[in-house]
Design a protein that fits this description.
The complex is a heterodimer of chains A (328) and B (549).
Chain A (H helix, E strand, L loop, with lengths): L1 H15 L3 H17 L6 H26 L7 H17 L4 H26 L3 H19 L11 H6 L13 H19 L1 H11 L1 H6 L4 H27 L10 H12 L10 H20 L4 H28 L1
Chain B lengths: L1 H7 L4 H4 L14 E10 L2 E11 L4 E5 L6 H8 L7 E6 L2 E3 L4 H6 L2 E5 L10 H5 L13 H14 L16 H13 L5 E5 L7 H15 L5 E5 L3 H7 L2 E6 L2 E7 L5 H9 L4 H6 L18 E9 L7 E6 L3 E6 L5 H8 L7 E8 L2 E4 L7 H9 L2 E4 L3 H5 L6 H6 L7 E2 L2 E2 L1 H15 L15 H13 L5 E5 L7 H16 L3 E5 L3 H7 L2 E6 L2 E7 L5 H8 L11
Helix pairs in contact in B: 17-18
The chains are: A mainly alpha (328), B alpha/beta (549).
Chain lengths: 328, 549
């Protein structure tokens, strides 16, 4: 029984190269989880996987774009912490939700601009700059809130938009999922269909050639890091709504998970290739694997080990493919 | 000549099988390669290729881009290994899994890419890979003497061995990689387009050294190049590859250039067509226009503090060649015109409809190139891999980057218009590609260069500045590019072309400026524009270039 399936997978890989790998992983993990976990194939349980995927997917959007540009954004957890704690804090002060979102967005965009300008002006690798900026932001938020001890509540409709059983207008899906689908569609079109997207690929592929082609490098860098910071902060607000309260630690895993989703999807850390479509697959792989391992009764520590091992394995597969194509 | 051609021509392996004498193979060869095949995915890079290098000879390996030269070199140097076939070195079967193994066997390779550690010193770079991992294998004084001797032989006499490599010019860096090979014990020296960054002076000196080395009858050199003048002048024998197969082995003394080119091109006929029916290179010089409007004016330009100021004028449709020895400031000249760098003194004026604008007027340096672009001055860089192509992107994306603003509305790319223009460019330039969606990295070097030039032609330029665009490009693609430049000039675009290939300058340019010591010393045209005058001017021998100005 196993042989024909294996050979079909082989021909898929032969035809599409490593592009087929994340697809196969998603399918394999879905089948494995469904087979090993009773009640996985029910609507609420599928929807809850989709909801946590949407959260990671929105947070990984900026990571994808910064990596495609040849950078990285390690300030994502810091900005998520900010969105998470500050939204609850402002709600406690009785601010209207829309004002909360706009305020946090404005601050996030400013921080994103800072990330880009510091990386460009100081010529320091964004790895260092964003890591530092993320720590500064999270530290500042925790200082102001005395360690995140805030106690407010987000409006009921926001909380319900992220619970797996609700529907949005006539669509039988939670609001956050509808939002993710809409954002994904926009990004998938935009990365090819807009001038910004094409410049992003060009700069990521060869910064020097892009400069000689008069590509507005700084504008693209600033734009990408603004988007990344904004999406991270908004994801932080959604996480607050998801867990119902502010949390200091809930954003921490996203440092690794956003990078993992991008890399597992097959976007090269060297920049200039891949795209958000791959990250969507990577998000499903990461979240399905988590669910599968949880179902097997593995601790979070073992999960981390296995996810790490998978990344090393996949990167070596992707890396080989690129190597051969460059040799010709 | 045609009789010698017949004896020298290679017989296909099918007929040779079983015969006592196998053409393409030699008794007592230093290196022989038999029926080597190599496949990369869908691409059959080599199929049953043959090669034999005799002891004491300088052997040239030629072929158009994609003929399998690089694959063969990579197999010989241990970078990759063959799928089928055998390698024999000094009569003993050999196979190399790593470059270190090949080197231990006596095959030392130098590649076109200047593989240097730019932060390390000249000395460290010369002995890189030749030293122990933790300690020097040689005494420092011995190393110094050896490095100095090797560098001096190939023309880097007075260089400070402690200088970090990045302070050297590209040509000097390439010489360092060659010196690195020379200080090792070698039997066969492999030069894979390792002369591409050198000017004629450097190349002549290098081939003199190689001739000395091989004179003893033991050491051999195998070199791969696109420069046919080098092949005809400096090799003893030539092996021609086409589509992964050996199609000819010739003694250079008996071979005619046309015949070699025809062998390289085969039935596709690109190089053969390039030679023309009589074997003459048809002149592509564009006649100077009468009363053509000026487009570019350089006044009192000083490229480097202390250099002599000069003026230069260019009008519509003019084609100005630039000839110089490496490191004399020709790149600075081109980059100043394109606004990428700024002259020490003087102005670069772009003229349109009688109005002149200083390219370097903005106080923001990054605006200079934009101002030049607004005035229609565009720059095609020399280093295709580093500065030209976006390797992972499609041909289309590579073509439209500078034109994106024009090709989009409210930030949205007009896909159809972009595809139409890219398709037109691919057709006009004769880019050989599966389509505009193919990744540019899968194209051969010559076709990649066409894409880089096409990128700028799509912007509808008024002045096209090209920095050695023919480097590493095969003769067929070269001819195509020359034709394109000719057509562009006839439409009124002014062209400034720097090339290390003087033949090309003579073919295309009615005027050639000689750059020496960071200044334009002569502008040759008409009857004064000859190969001898160019060389004399480049070497600064005024007696030969007398009255050239």
């Amino acid at each position: 029984m196993l042989r024909p399936r294996a050979s079909r997978a082989q021909t898929l890989v032969q035809r599409h190269g490593v592009d087929a790998v994340p697809w196969l992983l998603v399918i394999a993990l879905f089948i494995a989880t469904a087979a090993s976990l009773d009640g996985f194939l029910t609507k609420p349980s599928i929807l809850s996987v989709l909801v946590i995927s949407a959260l990671l997917g929105l947070a990984s959007l900026g990571q994808t774009l910064t990596i495609m540009l040849g950078g990285i954004d390690l300030s994502i957890p810091g900005l998520m912490t900010m969105g998470n704690i500050v939204s609850i804090m402002l709600a406690q002060h009785g601010w209207p939700f829309l004002t909360i979102v706009l305020t946090i967005s404005a601050v996030a965009i400013a921080i994103g601009t800072l990330n880009a300008i510091l990386s460009r002006a100081l010529q320091v690798h964004p790895l260092v700059v964003t890591l530092a900026v993320g720590l500064i932001v999270a530290g500042a938020v925790l200082t102001i809130t005395h360690g995140g001890s805030v106690n407010g509540a987000l409006p009921e409709w926001v909380v319900s938009a992220i619970s797996p059983v609700e529907h949005t207008w006539f669509i039988p899906l939670p609001g956050v999922l509808v939002a993710w689908i809409a954002v994904s569609a926009l990004v998938l079109w935009g990365q090819r269909g807009t001038r910004f997207g094409r410049l992003l690929y060009a700069i990521g592929s060869n910064p020097l050639a892009a400069r000689l082609s008069l590509a507005p490098e700084t504008v693209v860098w600033v734009g990408v890091y603004q988007i990344s910071a904004l999406m991270a902060a908004l994801s932080g607000i959604l996480l607050a709504a998801y867990s119902g309260s502010a949390s200091v630690s809930v954003s921490q895993p996203y440092l690794f998970m956003t990078v993992a989703a991008v890399v597992v999807g097959g976007t090269s850390l060297l920049g200039g290739s891949g795209g958000y479509g791959r990250t969507i697959l990577g998000v499903f792989v990461v979240q399905l694997l988590t669910v599968f391992l949880l179902g097997q009764g593995f601790s979070t520590y073992v999960q981390g080990t296995i996810l790490g091992a998978m990344i090393v394995l996949l990167v070596s597969i992707y890396g080989r493919d690129q190597h051969v194509s460059r040799r010709i | 000549m045609s009789t010698s051609r017949d004896t020298a021509a290679y017989t296909p392996p099918a007929e040779a099988n079983g015969a006592a004498a196998r053409p393409g193979q030699l008794d007592g060869a230093l290196l022989s390669v038999e029926s080597i095949s190599k496949r990369y995915g869908e691409t059959q890079a080599l199929s049953a290729a043959q090669l034999a290098v005799a002891p004491g000879e300088v052997h040239a390996l030629v072929g158009e881009n994609g003929s399998g030269k690089s694959s063969l070199v990579k197999i010989l140097s241990g970078v990759t290994s063959q799928d089928e076939g055998t390698l024999t070195l000094g009569g003993v079967p050999a196979s190399f899994r790593t470059p270190a193994q090949a080197r231990r066997a006596g095959i030392v390779a130098v590649f076109q890419e200047t593989l240097v550690a730019s932060e390390l010193s000249v000395l460290d770079n010369v002995f890189m890979g030749n030293d122990g991992l933790f300690r020097r294998r040689h005494r420092r004084t011995a190393e110094l003497a050896q490095a100095r001797a090797a560098l001096a032989r190939i023309g880097l006499q007075s260089i400070d061995l402690d200088r970090p490599l990045w302070t050297l010019t590209l040509a000097q860096q390439q010489l360092v990689t060659i010196a690195r090979a020379l200080v090792q014990p070698w039997k066969l020296l492999l030069l894979d387009e390792a002369t591409s960054a050198l000017d004629i002076d450097g190349r002549e000196r290098l081939f003199e050294v190689l001739a000395e080395e091989t004179r003893g009858g033991e050491l051999s050199v195998l070199f791969v190049t696109h420069r046919m003048d080098e092949v005809m002048k400096s090799s003893d024998r030539i092996t021609v590859l086409r589509a992964g197969q050996t199609v000819g082995v010739l003694r250079t003394a008996d071979a005619e250039l046309d015949y070699v080119l025809a062998l390289m091109a085969g039935e596709s006929g690109t190089a053969a067509a390039a030679v023309g029916e009589e074997g003459e290179t048809p002149a592509l010089r564009v006649a100077p226009r009468r009363a053509a409007a000026p487009v570019l004016e350089l006044a009192d330009v000083v490229l480097k503090p202390g250099a002599t100021p000069f003026d230069l004028k260019l009008s519509e449709g003019a084609v100005l060649g630039v000839a110089a020895l490496e490191g004399h400031g020709q790149a600075d000249l081109l980059r100043c015109i394109a606004g990428i760098s700024r002259p020490a003194e003087g102005t670069v004026l772009a003229c349109r409809d009688g109005i002149s604008a200083d390219v370097h007027q903005s106080r923001v340096r990054s605006q200079h190139a934009r101002e030049a672009y607004r005035q229609g001055i565009v720059y095609v860089p020399s280093d295709r891999k580093k500065e030209g192509i976006f390797p992972g992107l499609s041909v289309l994306d590579n073509l439209i980057v500078p034109s994106l603003a024009r090709l989009s509305r409210f930030g949205v790319v007009r896909g159809r218009a972009a595809a139409r223009q890219a398709n037109d460019a691919v057709r006009d330039l004769g880019v050989k590609t599966a389509g505009v969606r193919a990744k540019v990295g899968t194209l051969s070097g010559g076709n990649q260069q066409k894409v880089v030039v096409g990128r700028w032609l799509l912007t509808d330029p008024r002045v096209l500045v090209l920095n050695d665009p023919m480097r590493g490009v095969d003769p067929g693609a070269r001819r195509d590019l020359l034709n394109v430049l000719h057509q562009v000039a006839e439409k009124g675009v002014a062209i400034i072309l720097y090339s290390t290939e003087l033949e090309e300058l003579l073919t295309l340019c009615p005027e050639v400026a000689i750059v020496r010591d960071h200044s334009v010393t002569h502008v040759l045209s008409g009857e004064r524009l000859t190969m001898d005058a160019l060389i004399a001017g480049m070497f600064g021998r005024p007696d030969h270039a007398e009255g050239a100005r």
